[in-house]
Amino acid sequence: MLKLIKDNLKGSALAWATVAPLMMFLEVAMDLQQPALMARIIDVGVAKGDLPFVLHTGALMIAMAIAGFAGGALCSIFSARAAVTMSGEMRHSLFRKIQSLTFAEIDAFKTSSLVTRVTNDVMQMQHMLLMMLRIMVRSPLIFIGCVIMSFMLSPSLALVFAVIIPLVVASVAIVFSKATPLFSVAQASLDRMNTIMRENLLGARVVKAFTMESHEEARFAGANEELTERSIKAQRLVFVLLPVVTLIMNLGVVFVLWTGGREVMRGGIEIGKIMAFINYLVQISGSLMMAIMLVVNISRAQASAVRINEVLAATPSITEPQGSRHMADLSVEFSRVSFAYPGSRANALTDVSFSVCQGQTVGIIGATGSGKTTLAALIPRLYDVTEGQLLVGGVDVRSLSLAELRERIGMVMQETSLFAGTVEANLRFGSPNASIKDLDGACADAQAIDFLKGPDADYGIPVEQRGRNFSGGQKQRFSIARTLLHEPGILILDDSTSAIDLKTESFLRAAIAGRMRGKTVFVIAQRISAVMNADVIVVLDAGRVAALGAHRELIETSDIYRSIVASQLGEEALRHGN
Amino acid sequence: MATEMKPNFSGRPGGGPPHAHLFGEKEKARDAKGTLRRILKYLGKKKAALALVFACAFASTLITVVGTRLNGYAVDHFIATRNPLGLAAVCAIMVGLYLVGVVSTYAQNTLMLKAAQKTSADIRRDLFSGIQRLPLKYFDTHASGDLMSRLTNDVDNVNVMLAQGIVQLFSGIVMIAGMLIAMVMLRPLLTLVALAMAPLMFVSTKIIVNATQGYFKDQQRELGSLNGFIEEMISGQKTVTLFSREKSVVDDFDRINRRYVRVSIKAQGYSGVMGPVNNVINNLTYLVIAVTGGVLAIKGMGITVGVIFTFLLYMRNFTRPINDILNLFSTIQSALAGGERVFEVMDAEKERDRDGATDIADIAGYVNLEKVRFSYVPGHEVLKGMDIVARQGETVAIVGPTGAGKTTIINLLTKFYDFDGGRILIDGKDIREITARSLRRTISIVLQDPFLFSESVRENIRHGRSDASDAEVEDAARQARAHDFIMQLPQGYDTPLSDNGGNLSQGQRQLISIARAIISDAAVLILDEATSSIDTRTELLIQEALLALMRGKTCFVIAHRLSTIKNANAIVVISDGRAVESGTHAELIAKGGAYAALYNSQFSTGMAL
After folding, report:
1. Which structural domain, as residue segments, surrounds residue B85?
2. Is this structure's pTM higher than 0.80?
3. Which residue of B has its CA nearest to A219?
């Protein structure tokens, strides 16, 4: 963790980070003088009735307090500079790294986890550095300073620390070790209760429809009770700590009073010094507890550091080839391709072979999990095949430059993603140089011009985060328009019309057919009606090619194709034909 | 969105740097006092416990006061006078007092903790039952993320405040009061001098908070855009890759990141000054006491060394709780803001049956929609006069484009929403005269995406009818063609399902939801068919299961599979909020209208998509 922070502490931030603890040192040094000076007021000023001395010492104390304040304030400002700048740097490195990752790594980490790492975990690091520069300097300094000052006042009395400190540390350690498991157990209860809450929220329809209300209330009551009991048990243990530590400290004070008092009576030490000593004693136990609490926080920050480092250490599995070749045409050939997702033992695709000439339309159909999307994702090299070869334009996909692949291939994914901004910005996402005429053409073909062009005809309609302000069907057409604008030579549509009604879908089909004449199109769907008119239909079943050919052919030769048609379109469709 | 229990050993919430929370990082409640009063009212129910707590607090403070006083007493009366025996006696008394003090402090805090946690539990319970009685409209119109946040984070904030904050607040206030009284009783003049510094602390806090408020608002705003950008870009990472936009995305990010850093430095830096400010005020206070005490002692005005000593110790015990409470302030603020959001949900209008509505028991299953009108949002009618008739035992297939109003019909039949005009009759009775709960018991639904609960398979099926026996559960599962795969599961019927049945496949979840509908033995079935076919094997099972389910019932099917549609007793074609055609498949094809067009477009020539 420390290395991670150090790596991101560059330039001026490093300078601030170095000076801040020095400022804290100043503050603590000044603070530590106060009890000693107070002792002098008592022992010299009051004892001898020396009024000017008292006032002079007072003035000195004020000066020191102000100097200490300056130290503290500067420490705060410098440490903030250092920590915030550091986290900004870390955030940049992490974000840039994520941009270089491929689908495989992104899937492995999961999107939501990546977001948490860039936001929450980096904040944890910032918080940690801030604490390190402020409190983690302060507490130990106070502790050490108090011990030193106490020794200077009375070495013999200072031996009491040898008893007190171990006792305090032991108490904290014991409570800590016993309480942590109890808190985990309570956390599990909290998670359970939250799950029930969430289920009743998301499944409200079902709960009401089946009048499950009282059943759910009973289930909740059980979880609620359990949580309450466990929380009390865990927290109660922690509440032991403060009184116990206070007791230890107070007993220490009594001891000092007793021993020190007798020493004063013997004339070996002045009373003011005893008062100062007690003052330091109180401060020591306080700062000791504080320092130990910080250790708790370190483990939490440690966890964050691990998560950040994981991402930074990830190596993208897909890299630019050396000396790349170029696509000769728009053909695609799968040659005995097998693929398994990284970390998965089972193959998602096994021994897939088929070829598509330029200008053909390919339909890929199969059940959920049969490998359709996986197959599509291999074409623009979003993943690499584990066995076999994939040729695009006659060239092994691994020998083509990634830039060319992404330029010539356009893919509309199942889940649309739009970004906050304007319609125009989103459309131009892959085609910064497109003209308004181009936009008009792409949107018209995608059957989206009516809601994209906008009242001012400038595509200036705002798009909210994730495209929230558009319906499912609109988002799909928006996404298609964006990809069409990109003018790909190979177009891949992955189940991109699931929310579009049949009438609009047929217009869309026709428009795309016109636009992509002479170019290659892949259509992935679950609805037979979407692929029936393709030049080639590939039926996938559990990652293998179960049938291959045109519609009429497959009706005659493939059982599996026939049963899919029958179940979706009814027996008649088998006789219907085109 | 996980809430986290923080083991908090200092008893201080948050455990972060002092004062970090003071600065408007969280919302403020609009009616803080009202919310506080309401929370305290919950707490107030535990009267006996609270009385005990107060007694213990009083005892603890008294002990601290006396113990502290004894320090000074010992200095003046035994040390100064060289009386070792007296000193020993005082020390012994102090030891005894402190031992008792540990017990009373522990008792005080633990009793308060129990009362507070039980209060939290009461609030959670009331919140949950409140939610059960909310109309479905509430869930549809409120973002689920926000609601979840209220049910988890906000409730948790209130809990933290109760469990930790109130304990500390309470003991802090008692201590402050006790110390104040003790100081006044000791030397009123010196007390005045000491207290002169106290306002400084409040004033300086206020000045700093006000000055930095603006910076914090900016910080939160920039943080919002930063996090929003990050979330959006990373969620859409694949799109960025597909269009090769990595570099420009990083540039955009850097701009926002830099803006945030600039603003945050100011906010964090200046707010961190709070600590040193309070520190210096504390120091100045002590030295003022020391100097004033010293001066008065020299002038022989009845101040002894022991008195100064005691006073300094009193001041320490006086300012520390004040600092702690100032820290607590923002925790309490965010807890009150959270509490307000929780109460908002609790107070939301509940589902109500019309006065005079009666329960309905067994029904034959004759369902009639007459010129039903409905809009979710006033002014945007979804149903503009819908007419559908379903006779007992009939299957009615409802088809039409998305947005035509099919799902709305389900919502109205189950009284999830109330229609605006027209009538809906069950067995000739207007459903407005029927209680919602009893109506829903006579209807079962199977949704496109079935929702299952994190209980056992058996319990999930039993949700259909809570008094079903195990044998009946198994029978329903068999009819739903689910029994076989259930027996393959690790614990059979007792296998617990994970979140929304995540450990089962889509098809298996459908089959269980069908079993659930079968066991409910309702007279009317509403089926919202899944649009995409699942694999052919499971598909066949589901079709068989549905046939078993639909037998003998009046069924409303929002159909997507042509096979389902063609076998229905009646097909209703819906367009733009109205039923435009109805009849059997053969009749409608012959008519050559909307239905025929829809049917034929399945087979249109041209490029397939």
Report:
1. 29-214+269-347
2. no
3. B455
